[in-house]
Amino acid sequence: MGRIRRSRTHKSQRDIHRASRTRARTRDLDQIQLIDLDPKNRAALEAQPLDFDKPGLAQHYCVECARYFESDAALHSHWKSKVHKKRCRALKEPAYTIEECERAAGLGREGKRTNVLMTGVV
Predict the structure, then answer these.
(1) How high is the pLDDT of residue 3?
(2) Quick check: is 77 in a domain?
(3) 9: exposed, middle or buried (Cβ count in 10 Å: 0-12, 13-18, 19+)
(4) What are the start and end residues of every segment in region (Disordered) (predicted)?
(5) Does position 94 have pLDDT exceeding 70, yes or no?
(6) Residue 97: what pLDDT?
(7) What's the half-sphere exposure (Cβ side, CA atoms, 13 Å) at 10?
(8) Position 2 in a domain
(9) Is 117 part of a structural domain of the chain?
(10) How far is CA 22 from the centre of its chain?
């Protein structure tokens, strides 16, 4: 009886972790904001040449979500979905800059010490 109980408690945990580890990653928000939403790049992404390796021959592309769709109807239904609207809302916030990341890590201007304090010589 203990053996049956033990096998039921951890069912498919390994598969969940493996799926998250090997899932195809999409572009990050800062990459989309800085590169894809530029009007020149956006026009190039929306009018891509035929590519037989991508879904829908690369003709139905959502720039905000960086996803390809099989048909125009699938793309239009995606535009009405909650996932797309959340992504658009997240893209309206400003992107993180390198300076902001360095400040968060303690490497910015506020976190720097002078050489006098580091050496201990006053």
Answers:
(1) 56
(2) yes
(3) exposed
(4) 1-24
(5) yes
(6) 80
(7) 5
(8) no
(9) no
(10) 15
pTM above 0.70, yes or no: no
Q: For residue 20, give both structure tokens.
A: 């998250």
- Cα-based torsion angle of the residue sequence 29, 35, 37, 38 in order, rounded to the nearest 10 degrees: 160
For the segment 22-81, what is each residue's pLDDT rounded down to a tens digit? 667 778 888 899 899 999 999 999 999 999 999 999 999 999 999 999 999 999 999 999
Alpha helices in 11-67 (DSSP H): 13-22, 29-31, 39-46
Q: Residue 65 and residue 78: Cα distance in Å, rounded?
A: 10
CATH number for position 67: 3.30.160
d(CA 3, CA 112): 58
Residue 101: left if φ>0, alpha if ψ -120 to 50, beta else—which one? Answer: alpha
Contact 68, 53 (CB under 8 A): no
Q: Name 75's Cβ contacts closer than 8 Å, sequence gap at least 6.
A: 60, 61, 62, 69
| Tally of structural domains, the chain | 1
